[in-house]
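Let us practice reading a record.
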Amino acid sequence: MRAINAIYRAGGLRQAVEQGVLTSGVMHECIRRDVTYVLAGSIRDDGPLPDTVANVVDAQDRYAAALQGVKLVLVLSTMLHGIGVGNMLPAWVRLVCVDINPAVVTKLADRGSSQTIGIVTDVGLFLRQLASAIAHD
């Protein structure tokens, strides 16, 4: 809740990055590098963060628009949104699901996303290793 409140005080995620409130992490890098992202809400959300699309139909439409032409999707620690996105993708789009819980990876593949590659690990560790591998290429 402290993090959500800090983002609210800044006026949103982009403003939090610009003000130096949000200085690292996935959302920081998405904003810094102008990567399209969609935050979809849930009835279980604490907050939710500013910029979150609370209307499920609107969120699905935004997902569909953001997924146009993608060749690879990373699903990081979000089972329900990952399954939803996986079900929206054509079978030729590679989907990499990273979660510390093996059941999440299994559920995504079992629900029709046969193109899923599952990695059972801590997402923070995965992202550090991925960034290191990309930096060395």
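A brief commentary: The longest strand covers residues 94-99.
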